[in-house]
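User: Before I run my own analysis I want an independent prediction to cross-check against. Here's the chain; please return only the structure tokens and, at the end, one sentence I can use as a sanity check.
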Amino acid sequence: MAEAAAASGVPSSANPVLGMAGQDLGTLLLEARTLEPKYQPALALPHTTKNCSEITMGMRNGSAHVLRCLKVWYDLPSDTFFNAINIMDRFLTRMKAQPKHLSCIAVSAFHMSCEYSLKYPHLREAYQLPERQDLTTISQCKCSPKDVERMEAIMKDKLATDLQTSPPVTPLTLLRLLHAAHTQLAQSNTPAYSPMPITRLTHKLEILICDARAAVFRPAELALALLALELQTDIVNAPLHQACLQHLHSICGIADGSFEQCREVVSQLIHQYENQTQTPHRQRLVWKLSNRTLRQLRPTDKLTTRLPTIDETQPPYPIRARNDSECSSLSEILYNSSSEEEMDYDYDEDFPPLPAPAGAQRSALKSTWSPSKKAHTNTFPYPQYPRKYSRVC
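Assistant: Structure tokens:
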């Protein structure tokens, strides 16, 4: 068993499921098959809803993608992600929750999974438990750490399972077992057979479990369908793979009709993922910036790059020099108009003229010039208006 596990990329000492030394892979598969119904969620979520009073499949898929982003953000093992998805789906199966509580349920399931999964022997010292405050901030679930703590207590009471002593049987558990068993069977017939890396299968299984259409199938069906789909590319060993998969199919007790449906769904989802025909999940995030960062970003908040590119090889455009006659004629027009009555305004009623300058000359009725006072030299290049006419604007 240890040789098969090592060939599959999952050493027996580094896997909580395959770490039982001295047991056969067939025995482990039978044990997983026995515990499979206990941890199997039965999601019955609607596709759409009118008044947004129920959690739909799309909302559940969005929360699953958020959990996968948290797993990638903290660089956690796949065990934490699959256990969190299993906890969230089983809780949604037993309880009818409102959509506003779904984000808190997802973050609470992820923290519970990290709390128990990171205590496994092979993960105890390699990873660190994320804090509730950090999870609520990064995921933007709009709930406080106290809300997450209370939700965890509710989920533990409703699920009534001890994740530390008995880890849940997830599709990842069956994928590791089936991959190791297939490698053992193939190498017993063909010693030169090189197994497929388990990391590639695990990555695609994460994509599948984020979709509710694949989550409704048994973990054994989902893992075996993915393994059969990936082994189709090895045309040279096609008869060998067919015989091994048929033997594993009988051990897991999978019905033919259900397996064909699962295989069709898996093929469709993998095709959409590899060809990027499906729009990825996008969460509306709100970025929290400090005042200093905001001041740095403010000059470029409306900057666009749609301006045409300037060709530096051509000579610059000629600048037309102003003629002296134009300057003199403009000065004569400005200085010859000494009063408001001499000027001819032509404007609409909706667009009044510009206001008078701040240093406009006072009216002759209110301020009289006397010879004893020193006259002020007019330094403005435009006419001076009395103050009573400055109310036009």
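Sanity check: The radius of gyration is 38 Å.
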